[in-house]
Amino acid sequence: MKILVTGGAGFIGSSVVRMAMEQGHEIVNLDKMTYAANLENVAMVADKPGYAFEKVDICDAEAVDAVIQKHKPEGIMHLAAESHVDRSIDGPAAFIETNVMGTFNLLQSARKHWDSLSGAAKDNFRFHHVSTDEVYGDLHVGDPAFEETTPYDPSSPYSASKAASDHLVRAWARTYGLPTVLTNCSNNYGPYQFPEKLIPVVILKALHKQDIPVYGTGENIRDWLYVDDHADALLTVLTKGKLGETYNIGGNNERTNLELVKTICNLIDDRKLHNTPCESLITYVTDRPGHDYRYAINATKIESELGWTPSVSWNEGFEKTIDWYLNNEAWWKPLMKKKIFGERLGTKA
């Protein structure tokens, strides 16, 4: 397929782009290139036939429309989003603009494009909206995991904006007939993740022998999904998913934040990079406002209907992730000079 991927220079989007190119798809990578985007993430495919890059903000309706009319994709995978909960608490406006209005613009252009198609091209076109499990709210220990039919109950400005975008996609499918599929995933980790998120922060703090911040008591629970497993699931849903359906994607790896941090600490200690036990660096900090307690994904639908299951185990995924950061200092070290990252690592901006 010729696939338009929005946010294809970001963490998850670049994994999708790399994997899709390996599978023989053509890719149009549309990205605004915000602070969290990096074209180095897709440098290994950028010169290959069938790849195109368009620097476009999805909030620019005319530019989005022009790209779709120019490339005439056979499918659209919409991953572009503001996604950091802490940032959404401090500045929610950008999340409403990008995640809600940007999705609206994309839906309008996709609908215009789809309406212009005929025959097999019209029948085969699909719009895949990529969302998060955070739209479901949170759970207590012992509660059943999120299912595709779990009522929405978002807690943060980020999750509320993603919930709104999910509703828009379903409305465009029902009202206008736009052929859509929708996925909600658990927390991702792996190579190329921008160092404001928990796992790269922990890895790089540990490497620098700096305090490792843990919210509250560290008892909040998440289900962790290796990013390449997620990309594989997304491409499976795009090509095989039933139109109009939603699929939850999880890693079957529920852990408390403290268990996660200790796992990383132990794996770094095993590498004997310095004499300071990493666990001694753990520091508890004031909890995030409205911090969801537990997320858990029931992914039986995608397994039973599409035959997909995660392939990367807990320890394997973190071994690979830590080794990637150790071997790719040239990727993350320049980010330390940026104010957002410098403050987190305790270095001068």
Protein model, in words:
The chain is α/β, with parallel strands linked by helices. The chain has one domain (2-194, 225-254, 291-313): 3-Layer(aba) Sandwich (Rossmann fold). Helix content is 43%, strand content 16%. The chain has helices spanning 11-22, 61-71, 85-90, 93-116, 119-124, 157-176, 198-207, 227-240, 257-270, 300-306, 314-327, 329-332, 339-345, and strands at 2-6, 26-31, 51-55, 75-78, 126-132, 180-185, 187-189, 212-215, 221-226, 246-249, 254-256, 282-285. The strands form three sheets. A seven-stranded parallel β-sheet has the order 3-2-1-4-5-6-10, with helices on both faces. It has a three-stranded mixed β-sheet with strand order 7-9-11. A two-stranded parallel sheet has the order 8-12. Strand 1 (2-6), helix 1 and strand 2 (26-31) form a beta-alpha-beta unit. Helix 4 (93-116) packs parallel to helix 6 (157-176) and helix 7 (198-207) packs parallel to helix 9 (257-270). The longest helix has 24 residues, at 93-116. The radius of gyration is 20 Å and the shape is globular.
